[in-house]
Specification:
This protein is about 45% helix and about 15% strand. It has 4 helices and 4 strands, in the order αββββααα. A two-stranded parallel ribbon has the order 1-2. The two termini are about 30 Å apart. The mean pLDDT is about 80.
Length: about 110
């Protein structure tokens, strides 16, 4: 989110907290779409395979494609930076404060 606030495009998913920032206007060239919920298992963090432990996996080929696109389209990335920045502009501390005040005053 910090990169987006600075107008720096980021390759990201539309899951978890990022779904709040990644709008329909966010460039498709930077969205990873092929994510799926998978069992979370590795030998360091999750030694046992339990159904409750899951995370979203990504398609490595898709990620590679997005990185390659970004490397080959530097001028386009500069243009997309302003779109990325707009996607996160509503999420400032000032706006959060206004929303909090509105909630308190409406109670």
């Amino acid at each position: 989110t910090e990169a987006l606030a600075c107008g720096i495009p980021a390759i990201t998913t539309t899951i978890s907290a990022m779904s709040e920032y990644i709008t329909e206007d966010y460039p498709d060239e930077l969205k990873l779409k092929d994510t799926k919920l998978e069992p979370a298992f590795d030998e360091f963090w999750f030694k046992e395979k339990l159904a409750a432990r899951q995370w979203y996996g990504i398609n490595i080929d898709e990620l590679e494609s997005k990185i390659t696109w970004a490397l080959n389209h530097q001028d386009e990335l500069k243009r997309l930076g302003s779109i990325c920045k707009k996607s996160i502009e509503p999420f400032t501390w000032h706006n959060a404060g206004i929303q909090l005040i509105n909630v308190i005053e409406s109670s």
